[in-house]
Specification:
single chain; 3 domains; Immunoglobulin-like; 4-stranded antiparallel β-sheet; 8 helices; about 35% strand; 5-stranded mixed β-sheet
């Protein structure tokens, strides 16, 4: 319980303080600029009016930022997620993939281009209200597209009263927007295109590229809510492997147009080059090229209808063989070359007696190169020497002219003339016993006629091969030479007096 003396003391102290504060207040107001003869509260209303105008500016900035953001997003949709620089170029639409590069706009690239597009659009819209403010932007997916704009200049409004400036009202006009816009359409598209690329590669092995792309797009639309269309605007495109796409969602938004607003559907436009897979080669076989001096035949298969040419390398030699170079050898070789039943063949003659490593790769019409095939092989001499000429028979000698040195000469004798000699399968003359020249001369009997055949062979055995018949070693013409046997031997008839 307070005493009466205490209450009296508090009352006196309060009166004293009032007496001190009011003179001090009037002295302070009198020292400030301006005429303060106005009514109490008029300055406060002036400040509130200025604050209201700044709030209107902030409201305008928020709406300008919103519509400018949608304008920027619409611009990026038209340019495949880019603003001014297109890393892979463009063909009517911006390319996301070329023959050699991938330029899909990942989220950080997309946001970077969004900010580049947004700044001039926002500044243009703010300029209409007399506002000159620069911004630094930050974006992220947060239940929509969140865009934060950090103002680099403050919004400053001077406070004037009775024609005198008495201070400034300062605000930082930053903004934080969340737009009903889903940027994940870009990531979804590119993830799905990996499947599209794979489907097209498999399909193109047996069908045209355009029909394969159409089918892959149809399959995409069956499993996605995004609608993917090929060339929705019917643009001109001269590249057979580049396709134009439009991808749209059910999302709509408003953008400024003229003096009003226009509804815009979310639709991303882009172009893609469908890479051709490298051709596949297999089954490389290296064989002796018969009737050639150390020649070989390369045989292989190629699983690609678009092969342009083959590159063949051996030793220090590089050859380029077109499809026409590789295929006609099949017909040419059937009659006198050993060959494999492969799709492509190539003849390499006149090699040396050493080991070679042969490498073949295929290149298609789009310059895709197949993995190389490699085989090691040592050529062999399978060329028959020319037949003996000028064969002369006497009772005491057999003479002839030979085109080469170091040849083996084989003699065969048959009683009678040579009109019924069988040569097609190596029987007949060659089916008889091989003899030396002196043996042949010793068989001549007076009053009889004989047919003598002479066959020459090189040290590699060409064109004959040894065979055993009833314990006797005889010679047979190699299979590749049998149809040409008559030109490989010389014959003469002699009648012994």
């Amino acid at each position: 319980m307070r005493s009466k003396k205490g209450m009296v003391f508090i009352l006196l102290l309060s009166l004293f303080m009032i007496g001190m504060i009011f003179p001090s207040l009037f002295i302070t107001l009198d020292n400030m600029k301006g005429d303060f003869s106005a009514k109490i509260g008029e300055l406060q209303f002036e400040i509130l009016d200025i604050s209201s105008k700044q709030q209107q500016s902030l409201f305008y900035i928020d709406h300008a930022a919103k519509f400018s953001s949608y304008q920027a997003l619409s611009l990026l949709e038209e340019r495949g997620g880019y603003y001014q620089t297109f890393p892979c170029g463009s063909v009517e639409y911006v390319l996301w993939q070329t023959k050699d590069s991938i330029c899909f706009p990942e989220q950080n690239i997309l946001f970077k281009n969004l900010h580049q597009a947004l700044l001039p659009l926002l500044k243009s819209n703010l300029d209409k209200a007399g506002l000159d403010i620069d911004y630094e932007f930050y974006s992220r997916e947060n239940r929509g597209l969140q865009i934060i704009g950090i103002a680099l200049q403050n919004l400053v409004q001077p406070i004037e009263f009775k024609n005198d400036k008495i201070g400034n009202l300062t605000l930082k006009p930053s903004f934080d927007l969340t737009l009903a816009y889903d940027t994940s359409i870009y990531d979804t598209l590119w993830q799905e295109f990996s499947q599209i690329f794979s489907d097209v590669v498999d399909c193109e092995r047996s069908a045209q590229l355009s029909s394969c792309v159409t089918k892959a797009v149809d399959d995409f639309n069956k499993r996605q809510i995004i609608l993917l269309e090929i060339d929705c605007e019917k643009k001109d495109n001269d590249d057979d492997r580049t396709f134009l796409f439009c991808a749209s969602t059910n999302n709509h938004y408003l953008i400024p147009q003229g003096k009003g607003l226009s509804e815009k559907q979310q639709k991303v436009k882009f172009a893609v080059y469908f890479r051709d897979t490298a051709p596949q080669l297999g089954g490389l076989v290296v064989e002796i090229a018969s009737k050639l001096d150390k020649g070989v035949i390369l045989s292989w298969k190629a699983d690609d209808k678009d092969i342009d040419h083959f590159n063949i390398e051996f030793d220090s030699t590089s050859l380029s063989a077109s499809i026409k170079d590789a295929q006609p050898y099949v017909k040419e070789m059937k009659s006198f070359f050993l060959y494999s039943d492969s799709l492509y063949h190539y003849l390499i003659p006149n090699l040396e007696d050493k080991e070679y490593t042969f490498t073949i790769t295929g290149v298609d019409k789009n310059s895709n190169m197949a993995d190389p095939l490699t085989r090691t092989f040592t050529p062999q001499d399978r060329l028959a020497p020319p037949a003996a000429t000028n064969l002369q028979l006497t009772v005491s000698d057999i003479t002839m002219d030979l085109a080469e040195e170091n040849l083996d000469v084989y003699y065969y004798i048959k009683e009678g003339d040579c009109t019924d000699v069988v040569t097609m399968d190596g029987e007949g003359v060659l089916g008889g016993q091989r003899r030396e020249k002196n043996d042949v001369l010793g068989l001549f009997m007076p009053g009889k006629t004989y047919c003598v055949a002479v066959l020459v062979a090189d040290k590699a055995g060409n064109p004959v091969e040894k065979d055993q018949k009833e314990g006797i070693t005889i010679l047979r013409v190699r299979p590749e030479y049998r149809n040409e046997f008559p030109i490989l031997y010389a014959i003469a008839t002699i009648t012994i007096p």
